[in-house]
Amino acid sequence: QVQLVESGGGLVQPGGSLRLSCAASGFTLDIDAIGWFRQAPGKEREGVSCIRSSDGSTYYADAVKGRFTISRDNAKNMVYLQMNTLKPEDTAVFYCAAGRLCSDTPRGMDYWGKGTLVTVSS
What we know:
This protein is mostly beta strands. The protein has no helices and 11 strands. It is globular and about 45 Å long.
């Protein structure tokens, strides 16, 4: 059974940093991608970043390029999202998701964590 558990969310000030973690377990061989999505209240869920286990390829949404960095620790079965220079518009519930390939749409991912709330505010 695939399980994804996010952690690391919280309240940060604009310009601050936060690191999100996703603990993965129960993966099958067809799951190669873990991505981060976010959803603000009343908004659609949008892709933020993704990383492939097979070759380490990474992808970023334009809104976070240069500020966020996705990484993995295969020994710990963990994926991280380092978020720097946070902006109020980054405020959202962040979800990690797994699938066969990286996708920028929620429909392209097969498994989801419950999410962790990130609030960027003074």
